[in-house]
Amino acid sequence: MDRAQKEQVVEELGQIFESSGVVVVARYEGMTVAQMQVLRAQMREAGAAVRVAKNRLAKIALEGKPSASIADYLTGMTVLAFSDDPVAAAKVADAYAKTNDRFVILGGAMGDTALDPAGVKAVAQMPSREELIASIVAAIGAPASNIAGAIGAPASNIAGILTTLEEREAA
């Protein structure tokens, strides 16, 4: 890899560290290519991505970034999992670590907050952005449906009473 390629990698990593909602650093030593492809596919489905980079280049890219505290985790064979959604990459990484003992979460960062492995696990248990939006919409929509039901109920009661009165008069 020549100097220009290294500079390009550092710039790409810098963008990842700046714009990602969460970055998870994990050790992947001993994983097969097939296992790594499964991880990449699961990340892609969740809207996240995986990047393997030289630790030295990643440390250079971290300089001056909010997530610079994760530089200590960059030793050995490490992989970066990241997503714009502050929860997606952590969820997939945590779930994958449960099924593959060679994938070990070292830590990560959420903005300028450094996360240890327990912190990544805590982030993974948080609801995703879509789940939060769905619960907010449900909470907003529930009172409206209750009001519509309350308004509609007296009308149906009056209609039932009128029907009963008409049946009595006809008999």
What does this molecule look like?
Strands 2-3-1-4-5 form a 5-stranded antiparallel sheet. It has helices at 3-19, 33-45, 55-62, 88-99, 117-124, 129-170, and strands spanning 22-27, 48-51, 78-83, 104-110, 113-115. α1 (3-19) crosses α3 and α4 crosses α5. It is an alpha+beta fold. The chain contains 6 helices and 5 strands.
Structural class by secondary-structure content: alpha+beta
Q: Note the beta-strand portion.
A: 15-25%
Q: Give helix and strand order, one letter per element, not per position.
A: HEHEHEHEEHH
Shape: elongated
Strand order of the largest sheet: 2-3-1-4-5
Radius of gyration (Å): 26 Å
In total, the number of strands is: 5
Low-confidence stretches: none
Tell me the distance between the termini: 97 Å
**Helical stretch count?**
6
Could you estimate the helical fraction of the residues in percent?
55-70%
Average pLDDT works out at 85
The main β sheet shows up as: 5 strands, antiparallel
